[in-house]
Amino acid sequence: MAISFQEWGNTEAQQQILFIHGWGMNSGVWTDIAEYLEQLYPERLIRCVDLPGYGQSSAYDLERLGGVYNSQTLAQSMEPLLEGKQTSLIAWSMGGLVAIQMLTDDRLRAKKRHTNKKSQISKLLLVSSTPRFVQAEDWPYAVEAQIFEEFSRSLSRDHRATLKRFLAIQAMGSRTARNDIKILQAQLLQRGEPDQQALESGLQILLKEDKRRQLQEMSDVPVILIAGKYDTLAKYQGQKVLAEQDNISLYSISQAGHAPFISHPEEFKKILQNVI
Fold this sequence. Notes:
The chain has helices at about 30-40, 70-80, 95-110, 145-155, 160-170, 175-190, 195-210, 210-215, 235-240, 260-265, 265-275, and strands at about 5-10, 15-20, 45-50, 85-90, 120-125, 225-230, 250-255. By secondary structure, it is an alpha/beta fold. It is globular, with a radius of gyration of 17 Å.
């Protein structure tokens, strides 16, 4: 089974906008934004992917990932979607780790070709994401590891209840938290429940992976951070630190939490108009 995705716009276009969702969710979270961009950029191809184990990729044979479920194998599974097109990547939460890896791999492939052909990924937009989600001595702008460890333990007991708790955390800080949770729950169910193994492995990605050095090395690629100031998972202070790098720009939504495109869609769309 190939990886599943939704698409809008011009399927023959040489420019595409590719969306990646976060842990526990699927491509449905991006539908409203994708439809908006289709109106704004009808000449482009717009795709929203269901990562392996999620949405309509829930039946994806995870063994095809070589027995390893991490940002590297997820990035490899999405490589066919680049198709030689100039791509703007927009990734939310855990999807940001996959996107950073995709950009790293894309630049390595371009170097190996020994031609003047540039990388296929020309721009990276990280939405409520961070290269490292847990705290370290040199990275205090994150959550404590025990938060994801507790989610991992509770997942084996009741994955539905765990997903609901995670949705609630994502909405924390937003003035429209209750409504945000309802929207996220509806989008989660619309394309099917995620695979248990994918959920467990996804938590390990959040817990263990660190892409800070890779992000620092991408000094020649425009990186845009879109952050909610009340985000409890990708701390706003950390976003400000990342934005000290010359090629990284930060756009914030003052009253938003971890899902600004859900809680503040109009503000989010205005930012996209400025950066895509």
